[in-house]
């Protein structure tokens, strides 16, 4: 069975036969919910914090504060200046907007997001995030692009159509988004400014020769045509759309304002992508002697104020239940700062998901910072970004779990980020088990024991990564009953140093930092 | 063996070669190439360029080191003087654009830009440093790639851009070492195992970072980078099996040379740089056939010539493959190429006054920056996306947004020139029309302009479409009548303006179709 699209208007027409042919139980309840409500108007706003955001200077782990301060004496943020997000998370003082989002129940923070075998090159890592692949896998299509490809085979030929009059995705910037790269074409349209849309002439088209000239010219012709076809719709949406709250006068805030106008003006675009560059803070992340100001502070303030204004606007416009926002960054930064008042490419970083239909709160635990941090050590991975993406696809866009595994990866782990939002949807997902995990002795010589207690029978996966996020050992991947288990781990083959043991029990994750003597 | 091109040498081939090696060849330049023949044209293209003028102040009189008309190169910068950085930088920006206009004879400008895109620096350092850096790229543009890599490695601008200057003995910074391998020399291959990128491994990145410790560039001091022996890691550095388990011994200030020599022992370096050149000059599809039939022989030539760039590049540009009809027109113009394919091809007049000319370039510089291309502001260390980002490559230049802005830039040319230099007529289209073989014949006129503007011949319906903008609904001879009327009364303003307006309509129709984005 190929599940029909949430995007296609026509899917609603075929609904009765569709439902008639299958048992309800065979459908994911969230799919059913989306379709029954004709709820094909969900929007995802992706914000690319380009360059690799320093999560440790954004969401400061208060429970490891002293160790963090020791590891980065020249740029840590003084504890008394942090905003209190939770008992154990202090926010960068410029992130008031995010603090407000959190207090209002509009923010989910997912801790320690990365992928196994972290690649610390910007380009490759950005490719991995955009294409949604494993570190050693190469795909030319983006994670949303593959989904769009399946839903709209043949694109761009023939589009826009009566059913799909609007671009599937919009990038507010000069470049289209790698996330939306499909097999034949990119599903996103780049717009700098609404006034520069349309009116492109294609003259008289000659047949395209079957060579590289034909291929490239064909792309240009197609861009001209799509731009013209979509221009009127976009301009009308912005004109008839609205924006109520005041936005800061920053480029990212103004772009979000335009997005709010487009959505409220009825544009049916599903994915919006904006990019905020500058997070590659190898040097001068802060101003010397004044760690709460500088490059990173400015970026966080700009972003934080912008997304808070956006969320408030969406509420005021009463479209907040249709919109989900998500930030991502190609990697986090190393725990130890460098001598140039900056930080170098690291491993995991937190992701922010904001909106009105989320399970607000913090998913995952604070990154564990040791007393002796390795020079190359990054923040350990707790969640694979592909699981975050996949959970959004499933719960927001109603894609089946089987399709998610196909688009992203077989090891997909559902993360309960999104709730059904004011509905009585009987979410049939498994609950998150309560687990406790210990690992001892620490430090260890040649072997250690992972002690695990779970209140549900679950598939348990235990992996070991090194300080740069490289997977060095896979311990187990099997089903365990509820109760307590002791799993011995042999570390004979490991060099002395720091390791992260990641224990995944169903939807629960715990990462423990271990030291081999 | 890269099969040399032996076919006819006519307008189509000459225009193709010049579009790919210079910026916006005009009719006279293409005619020159036809007169010189293919051999002569290559000799001209690869001859020494005119020396680049030193940047001089043209409107800034607050610097005691240099007045208007004098160069600031080699003179210290007093950063308490307001706007002094911008005053110096803008003359660097202007200089690049000026070069793309003035040197229409050699491949130098295209190639220097290639190296800027290869050995990227972006918004780092000081004007003096950056000027020196660009001079280095120009000096070595056709020279020895290995030697160039050595010079770049310890160049101040690069030490600052990729944090080599923060690469300390006790705290190695891997940024430069990583890009040296991944982008500049050997290139990253498929992941073969944890931390193993086929051509090199994480171990090599770490080892090379250590070998490069000790180099330091003061941001504010305009003197060569310094080597601080006390900050150099004197231990031995063990490379991985990808470099045959070689060991880099301590060699102090010469160690970086040994590092680069070791890297260049690997043949993969020659392939990597040839792929980059191919993508810059020909096309981006490096399929197995291209790898075997173009990249391999080119890389062999490069190695046979001790990594001197010119023989390999010349072999590519002289090849049957380069001139193959099916390979022509496959590049989407980047912003500079697009702009100059109008500005130079149309012989747009530039203000005679030097300061006015500089002001003009600066405005174009910012307009083109808005379109996504300007020197010293490259989006990432991998260069402009069009030359590395699969699967989009050149298509990255084309979005709904950029296409409209490109056309708008052309419509602004006259206004900008008039603004900086009242009275200067920038675009004189009549003069271009007059230079055609048979301007009184509408079909011949449009076809000849098509040959100048487009990489491939237009179809008859396309010709008729453009004709519509010139003589809407009228028989062909009406153009002849109108044009001859103008020839008979060249000084009659009304006649002149009438025909100019018509021609303007034709030219804009011709540059706004998708075909004009191709080269």
DSSP summary, beta strand count of chain B = 4
Number of strands of chain A: 19
Measured as a percent range, the helix fraction of chain B is 40-55%
Lateral strand order in the biggest sheet of chain B? 1-2
Indicate the proportion of strand residues of chain A.
15-25%
Net shape of chain B: globular
Overview of the structural elements:
The complex is a heterodimer of chains A (517) and B (519). Chain A is of the alpha/beta class and 517 residues long. In chain A, strands 1, 5, 6, 7, 8, 9, 10, 11 and 12 form a nine-stranded mixed sheet that branches. A four-stranded antiparallel sheet of chain A has the order 16-15-18-19, with no helix packed on it. Chain A has a three-stranded antiparallel sheet with strand order 2-4-3, with helices on one face. The N terminus of chain A is likely disordered. In chain A, α5 runs parallel beside α10. Chain A has two domains: 398 residues, no CATH class; 82 residues, Sandwich (Immunoglobulin-like), CATH 2.60.40.1930. Helices cover 52% and strands 2% of the residues of chain B. In chain B, α11 packs across α12. The radius of gyration of chain B is 25 Å and the shape is globular. Chain B is mainly α and 519 residues long. In chain B, 49% of the residues are buried. The mean pLDDT of chain B is 94. The longest helix of chain B has 21 residues. A two-stranded antiparallel ribbon of chain B has the order 1-2. Chain B has a two-stranded antiparallel ribbon with strand order 3-4. Classes of the chains: A alpha/beta (517), B mainly alpha (519). Chains A and B meet through α6, β7 and α8 of A and α8, α17 and α20 of B.
């Amino acid at each position: 069975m190929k599940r029909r699209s949430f995007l296609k208007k026509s899917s609603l027409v075929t609904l009765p036969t569709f439902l008639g042919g299958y048992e309800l139980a065979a459908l994911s309840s969230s799919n059913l919910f989306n379709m029954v409500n004709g709820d094909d108007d969900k929007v995802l706003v992706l914000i690319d914090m380009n360059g690799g955001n320093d999560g440790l200077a954004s969401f400061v782990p208060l429970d490891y504060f002293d160790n963090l301060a020791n590891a980065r004496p020249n740029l840590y943020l003084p504890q008394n200046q942090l905003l209190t997000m939770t008992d154990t998370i202090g926010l960068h003082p410029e992130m008031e907007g995010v603090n407000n989002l959190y207090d209002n129940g509009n923010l989910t923070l997912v801790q320690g997001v990365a992928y196994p075998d972290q690649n610390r090159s910007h380009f490759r890592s950005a490719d991995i995030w955009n294409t949604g692949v494993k570190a050693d896998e190469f795909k030319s299509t983006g994670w949303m692009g593959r989904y769009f490809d399946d839903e709209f085979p043949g694109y761009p030929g023939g589009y826009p159509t009566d059913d799909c009059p609007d671009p599937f995705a919009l990038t507010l910037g000069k470049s289209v988004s790698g996330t939306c790269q499909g097999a034949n074409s990119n599903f996103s349209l780049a717009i700098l400014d609404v006034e520069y849309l349309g009116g492109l002439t294609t003259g008289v088209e000659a047949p395209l020769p079957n060579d590289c000239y034909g291929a490239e010219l064909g792309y240009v012709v197609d861009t001209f045509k799509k731009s013209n076809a979509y221009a009127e719709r976009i301009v009308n949406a912005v004109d008839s759309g609205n924006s109520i709250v005041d936005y800061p006068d920053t480029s990212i805030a103004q772009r979000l304002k335009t997005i709010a106008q487009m959505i409220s003006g009825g544009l049916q675009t599903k994915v919006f992508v904006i990019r905020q560059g500058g997070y590659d803070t190898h040097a001068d992340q802060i101003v010397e002697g004044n760690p709460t100001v500088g490059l990173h502070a400015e970026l966080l303030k700009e972003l934080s104020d912008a997304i808070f204004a956006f969320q408030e606007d969406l509420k005021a416009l009463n479209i907040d239940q249709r919109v989900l926002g998500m930030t991502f960054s190609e990697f986090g930064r190393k725990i130890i700062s460098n001598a140039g008042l900056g930080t170098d490419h690291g491993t995991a970083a937190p992701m922010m998901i904001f909106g009105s239909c989320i399970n607000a709160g913090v998913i995952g635990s604070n990154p564990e910072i040791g007393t002796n941090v390795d020079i190359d050590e990054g923040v350990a991975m707790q969640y694979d970004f592909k699981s975050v993406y996949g959970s959004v696809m499933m719960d927001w866009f109603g894609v089946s779990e089987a399709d998610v595994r196909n688009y992203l990866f077989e090891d997909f782990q559902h993360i309960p980020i999104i709730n059904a939002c004011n509905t009585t949807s009987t979410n049939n997902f498994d609950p998150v088990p309560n687990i406790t995990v210990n690992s001892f002795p620490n430090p260890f010589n040649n072997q250690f024991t992972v002690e695990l207690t779970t209140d549900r029978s679950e598939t348990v996966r235990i992996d070991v990564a090194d300080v740069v996020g490289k997977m060095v050992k896979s311990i187990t991947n099997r089903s365990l009953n509820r109760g307590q288990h002791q799993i011995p781990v042999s570390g004979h083959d490991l060099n002395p140093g720091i390791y992260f043991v990641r224990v995944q029990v169903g939807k629960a994750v715990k990462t423990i930092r271990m030291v081999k003597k | 063996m890269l099969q040399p091109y032996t076919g006819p040498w006519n307008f189509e081939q000459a225009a193709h070669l010049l579009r790919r090696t210079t910026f916006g060849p005009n009719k006279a330049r293409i005619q020159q190439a036809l007169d010189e023949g293919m051999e002569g044209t290559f000799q001209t293209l690869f001859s020494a360029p005119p020396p680049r003028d030193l940047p001089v102040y043209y409107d800034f009189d607050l610097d005691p080191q240099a007045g208007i008309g004098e160069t600031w190169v080699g003179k210290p910068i007093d950063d308490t003087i307001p706007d002094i950085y911008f005053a110096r930088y803008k003359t660097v920006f202007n200089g690049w654009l000026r070069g793309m206009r003035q040197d229409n004879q050699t491949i130098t400008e295209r190639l220097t830009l290639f190296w800027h895109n290869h050995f990227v620096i972006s918004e780092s350092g000081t004007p003096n440093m950056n000027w020196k850096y660009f001079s280095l790229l120009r000096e070595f543009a056709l020279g020895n790639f290995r030697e160039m890599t050595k010079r770049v490695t310890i160049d101040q601008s690069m030490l600052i851009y990729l944090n080599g200057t923060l690469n300390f003995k006790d705290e190695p910074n891997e940024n430069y070492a990583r890009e040296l391998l991944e982008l500049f020399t050997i290139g990253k291959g498929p992941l073969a195992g944890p931390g193993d990128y086929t051509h090199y491994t994480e171990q090599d990145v770490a080892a090379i970072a250590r070998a490069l410790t000790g180099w330091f560039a003061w941001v504010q001091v305009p003197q060569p980078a310094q080597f601080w022996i006390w900050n150099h890691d004197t231990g031995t550095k063990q490379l991985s099996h990808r470099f045959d388990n070689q060991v880099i011994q301590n060699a102090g200030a010469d160690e970086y040379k040994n590092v680069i020599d070791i890297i260049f022992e690997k043949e993969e370096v020659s392939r990597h740089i040839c792929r980059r050149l191919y993508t810059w000059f020909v096309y981006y599809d490096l399929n197995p056939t291209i790898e075997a039939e173009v990249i391999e022989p080119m890389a062999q030539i490069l190695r046979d010539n001790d990594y001197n760039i010119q023989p390999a590049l010349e072999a590519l540009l002289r090849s049957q493959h380069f001139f193959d009809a099916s390979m022509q027109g496959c590049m989407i113009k980047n912003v500079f190429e697009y702009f100059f394919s109008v500005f130079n091809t149309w012989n747009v007049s530039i203000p005679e006054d030097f300061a006015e000319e500089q002001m003009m370039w600066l405005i174009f510089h910012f307009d083109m920056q808005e379109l996504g291309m300007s020197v010293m502001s490259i989006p990432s260390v991998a260069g402009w996306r069009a030359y590395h980002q699969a699967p989009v490559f050149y298509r990255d230049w084309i979005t709904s947004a950029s296409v409209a802005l490109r056309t708008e830039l052309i419509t602004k040319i006259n206004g900008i020139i008039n603004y900086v230099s009242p009275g200067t007529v920038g675009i004189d289209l009549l003069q271009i029309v007059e230079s055609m073989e048979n301007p009184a014949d509408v079909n011949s006129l449009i076809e000849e302009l098509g040959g100048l503007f487009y990489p491939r011949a237009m179809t008859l319906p396309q010709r008729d479409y453009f004709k519509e903008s010139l003589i809407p609904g009228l028989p062909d001879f009406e153009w002849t009548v109108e044009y001859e009327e103008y020839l008979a009364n060249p000084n009659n303003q009304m006649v002149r303006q009438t025909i100019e307006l018509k021609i303007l309509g034709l030219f804009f129709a011709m540059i706004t179709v998708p075909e004009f984005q191709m080269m």
